[in-house]
Batch of 2 targets.
Target 1
Amino acid sequence: MTRHFNFCAGPAAMPIAVLDRACNEMKDYRECGLSVMEMSHRSSEFMAIAEQAEKDLRELLEIPENYRVLFTQGGASLQFSAVPYNLLGQGGTANFLDTGIWSRKAIDEAQRLFGAAHVAASSQAGGYQSLPRQEDIVLSEDAAYLHYTSNETIGGLEFDYIPHAVRPDGSEVPLVCDMSSNILSGPLDVSRFGVIYAGAQKNIGPAGLVVVIVRDDLLNQACAGMPSLLGYQALAKGGSMVNTPATYSWYLAGLVFQWLKNEVGGLDAMEAINARKAEKLYSAIDKSRLYANPVALANRSRMNVPFVLTDERLDSLFLQEAEAAGLLNLKGHRSVGGMRASIYNAVSEQAVDALISFMADFEQRRG
Ligand SMILES: *Cc1c(COP(=O)(O)O)cnc(C)c1O
């Protein structure tokens, strides 16, 4: 059996140690005589798995006591609806930073459901190749919260600061962040946020699970008449088991948290590795004549590295040869073309090294 290097943007590579452990426990989980995916979510075994996962995530991100952690479903995209439903019950307008395709989807959904969405800053005019700075952000007078996307997975841009969410009158509103593609890539000050959400399939585990971290005081701001399964209050009260949760994905997420804690050595260590991987890859791109990345230096993502070939006639040959060399899923998003290497937590430094040497070799032969 050969494992190739997988640069997929999502569902993304999993740590091999996690796959090994899941494999060992697959048919008979700790002498229970059945697999985790066949267990009742109310069994003591699964309850222990669920509790341990939350405990480990809390420890990794140092989540304060006054935050609830929800393990829910529907993808990050369902949170584009859930967030306004949960936070606009007392009126006001959802505010957004418009930074690319994912933030646009969140804006469009709030607009569709509530008839209004205020764009507090946008990088559209510059073709989404840089991110707004704090001084560019102007909230509406009636802002209920500010939503932003900390890492634009398709454009390859990542905030290097946490925005302040302050109305023109100086009052602060909750900050909401779609952290789907960079959560757990390094340490985080959770106390700066009202709501953090992330689809699992990039840095947490397999698809089918969404992690929501929500501050206690925001649990009672929901709109009357919203779909009950989207309610943070109900999910928090029911221990994320209002209906059947994505049990196997939850279990695998728990194994990823343990891998981060015990094998990587925590989020400071993870951040150092991620910084090294990204630095190497961008530097190889910048030094070459064949490859280019258009993103402003300060805003380059450490997780998703899009690049184009300056001679785009070589695109398909590049992808074909990369695949033959065991480097998978380098094709850029269908909306932007070119290439994209997603180098999430589980993509090893060895994988990045292999990509860099393939790129150099390809440029020498074909460039
Ligand atoms: C992948 C992604 C999403 C969408 O996730 P789904 O689980 O497919 O709904 C949303 N936001 C960001 C930033 C993403 O990377």
Target 2
Amino acid sequence: MSNTDKSRTAATGTRIVSAGRRKEWTGPVVNPPVWRASTHLYENTAALAEGPRRNEDGRFFYGRRGAPTQWALSQALTELEAGAEGTVLYPSGVAAIAGVMLTLLKPGDVVLISDNAYDPTRTIGKGLLSDLGIEPRFFDPLDIGAYEALFCEHTRAVLLEAPGSLSMEICDLPELARIARGRDAVSVLDNTWASSLGFRALEQGIDISVMALTKHVGGHSDLMMGSASAGPELYGHLRQRAQQLGTVVSPDDAALALRGLRTLHLRLQHETEAALQIAQWLSRRTEVAQVLCPMLPGAPGHDLWKRDFMGGCGLFSFVFKGGTAAARNRFVDALKLFGIGYSWGGYESLALPIEPANYRNRMAWPPAPGDARDRHGVRLAIGLEDANDLIADIEQALIAWAAG
Ligand SMILES: *Cc1c(COP(=O)(O)O)cnc(C)c1O
């Protein structure tokens, strides 16, 4: 039975263990070896002449088209993304988003970008794409009427992200994708938060699913990578453009990403349960105005998350009841088990002070309804520590918030 036969019927853990492990790539060992290669050697000149003509996945040619370590990772990600024909790897998540945009858009086109997208994604729109004569239009993904009204005859692509960066609201992804398809625009989802395990993007009507593998798939805060998975036609375009741009990832990093992938479901399960426990605890605290965690009943977007998603992760935010930015920063500084830093999806917990108002054109912050003084937020990325220990740490740091 091939991996692909198994991939549609078996449970997630079973599929993750076998994904991408082709005999011709692994040989007798369990993990695909690290194939460090620029030159691929040919038997003779006739085989050499054949090379450029047969530009197919899994064929030796030259290092820029990868070798078995990268192919194994691509294939594994494709097997985990129902409806995908293939997956292109990029040297970072941002490179994946830029690579996808440079595939879909040309001067004169319009791209709609979710106003709560990851800030570097917004910058791709305002910087790179604007410089190329492509117009980015930002929209509130919770206002479907306003979104629909932004389409014009030049709209070629829609860039979505859920939950929203920092503010964590969930939008109606199937509906936004359906509207895009009706207007002949390609829908692209940054699916880093849920991953293909938690949201089946292509099955829900999204055309291209992007992940920052830097986060959950890598899982150990030691590599940068991105991916884009799509059905046959768009995958062909993405692959061609990536080759034109010279996009290639290191085989060492691909091997690390594959190693991370094998435990993805277990890490997500632990993080989701721990995050929910911590979110519930925070929601009962008088210091906290609002917990922004899609998995938490009553939180913004919870109903859509329950309807459309199959899982969550450890990343969520909360907003203090009143207080100052200095008090919020005292809280973050007082945490002992949380590192202070960007990124997430690693095995270690992180905390970040957040000011979403700086990254929005259309959406309001603080999130309604509430007191305008409840605006100082923190984003937590819950790792693999024990949830009760993390709660005790947060509890002692709340004393620092209240003092002063
Ligand atoms: C981190 C992140 C990215 C970018 O990934 P990098 O590998 O850091 O470039 C894109 N989207 C989301 C939602 C992210 O969190």
